[in-house]
Structure formats: C-alpha cells, structure tokens
Amino acid sequence: MTAPSRLDRAVGAVLGSAAGDALGAPYEFGPAGQLSARGEEMRGGGGWDPGEATDDTQMAVLIAESLLEHDGLELPDVFARFQRWAAGHPKDIGLQTEDVLTSGEPWDLAAALHFQINARAAGNGSLMRAATPAVYFAAAGREATMDAARRIAALTHGDPAAWEGTAILHELVRVALDGADPLTALPAALDAVHPDHRERYGRVLAPDWHPGLATEFNGAVWPCLGSAVWALRTTTGFAEAVRAAVDLGGDTDTVAAVTGALAGARYGQGAVPAPWTAALHVPLPGFGERVLDADDLRALAQRLAVAGSR
Ligand SMILES: [Mg+2]
C-alpha cells in the first residue's frame, strides 16, 4: 500500500473528525463500552439520525467556509457565523459556547467576560472543531498554526488552557499532514505551549498516561486531548482508534471527533470506513436547509488544503 498523499491526509482529517463525531453522538454522556456492546455502527440513537454529525462538525464547517470566503482568518466573521448558527437552535451546543454566543457582547470580549465571571472555561469545545482550520493553516508552519488555533479558540473559550490544548491539536495534525508520526512531534509541540500550561499537558500526553488517570470528566480539554492521543497511540488504524475513543464513554462525540481528526490525518481518507461515510451528513442550523454529505466534506477539505498552501 502506498502512503497517503498530503491531500488524502487533509481529507482524512476533516472526514475522519466528522465520522468520529457521528459515530460517537448516540452515546454522549453514557458509560464506557457502549459502542462495542451494541455491535452496530452508525445506526443513530439518542436523538441523532444514523450518520448525523453534531455541533463539533457543524462549527468546523462554519470556520472552514469563513476561511475560504475571506481568504484567511477573519475572526469577527467566524464569530458572526457561530452566532447565526447558535440562533438556529442546533440540537446540541456546549453550555459555555451558547452563553458566550448569546451574551450580546462583541466578538473580542464575549468569551473573556464569560471567563472573568465563571472562572472555569476549559471545556473541549474549541478542540472539537479544529480539523478544518488545522488543515488550512498547516502549510504556514508551526507558529502560525498554533497562533491561529489560539485565536479561534478564544472566540468562545476565555480560558488559555483551552487555547493551548487546541494549539497542540492543530500542531499534531500539521505534522501528520507532512507524513510524520504526530506522536513523535509531542515534545516539540509541548515546547511551543505557554509555560503556564506545559506541565499539565505534558502529563496527559505522556506515553504512560491513559484515560483511567484523568482527573476531570473528558468534556474538559486536558483529558479530551489526552484520550485522543492515547487512542492513537494504543491502536494501529483509523477505525480502531475512533472505536476506542467512543468506547471510553462520556463526551463520546467530541473525544471521537478529536481522535478522528488525528487518526484521519495520520492514516488518510482511505482508512475511514466506507460504511461510516455513506450515511454521514452535517446539518447547518441557521443556514437554511443546507446539509453537507461526505463528498461535500471531501471537497471542503481539499479546498482548505489548497487555499491554505497558497
Ligand atoms: Mg457534539
């Protein structure tokens, strides 16, 4: 088998994240092992149709379309798209994300003000939507990739811990698109993390860490990223990694979306099982009746990869 091309990996990241999101959606907030116990995949449940992607992928698509239409990162536009989407009553939206997007505060203050009042804002909500900007910014190199990640995260998450985790994920996807093993890039990625946050990420990304050691629910940014990296490290293929992520229980759609982005970039789009992508679809509340399918996601990922490398 020949190694996947850079474009195959870019599509793998975007499609893989969406597939993980949809695979995990029916089991959100449930116990561990539900996917294996059910023995059927992409059959829906918990209010989700088979193959239906949730807020993770919906927000990733919104970021992608803003990047492409503006030929770069136009933060007020991304925020406005998020607001329009939130007003369209998505089936699922993170509590904190909803608070920030509906606060009526301007794009550059809303998340910071929320963090000032609530102090805790390190949910995984900025991690879950990272596949598309990670593909777009990859060609710009590590520093630009991590900087963009932080700025997009800061639109909804005022806690710098969320920015740093999102920056690490972007960087790991960037390395994988280059054809390298993202696990070997962890030390360099950690070096580029803000010193205040380096130790804590170092702990959850260490080779001997496993989800059983998590000190928070995996809806928080640290165990979510740690679990995704663990899933990649302890498996040998895309489907196996994403299944392991869903079977952890908890915030199954998001842990699987993050795992899917990493594993998709690592193994390429050909590794994403066809039965998972056949029913895959992404509604976009607030944007009319638009629903993207797997081919739309493939095309979107290709446009991101090409536009980002110009
Ligand atoms: Mg979700």
Helix and strand topology:
Layout: H1 6-24, H2 34-38, H3 55-70, H4 75-87, H5 95-101, H6 110-118, H7 131-137, H8 142-153, H9 160-177, H10 186-191, H11 195-204, H12 221-233, H13 238-246, H14 252-267, H15 274-278, E1 281-283, E2 291-293, H16 294-308
Antiparallel strand pairs: 1-2
Helix pairs in contact: 1-13, 1-14, 1-16, 3-4, 3-7, 3-16, 7-9, 7-16, 8-9, 9-14, 12-13, 12-14, 13-14
The structure holds magnesium ion.
InterPro entries: ADP-ribosylglycohydrolase, Ribosyl_crysJ1, Ribosyl_crysJ1_sf
Keywords: Hydrolase
Protein name: ADP-ribosylglycohydrolase family protein
Please summarize the sheet with the most strands.
2 strands, antiparallel
- As residue ranges, the low-confidence spans are none
Portion in beta strands:
under 5%
Assembly context of the chains: single chain
Structural class of the helix and strand makeup? mainly alpha
Q: What percentage of residues falls in helices of 4 or more residues?
A: 55-70%
H and E string? HHHHHHHHHHHHHHHEEH
Counting DSSP E segments of at least 2 residues, the number of strands comes to 2
Strand order of the largest sheet: 1-2
Rg from alpha-carbon coordinates: 17 Å
Shape: globular
With helices defined by DSSP (H or I, 4 residues minimum), what is the helix count? Answer: 16
From the N-terminal CA to the C-terminal CA, the straight-line distance is 29 Å
Query: What molecules are bound to this protein?
Result: magnesium ion
Integer average pLDDT: 96
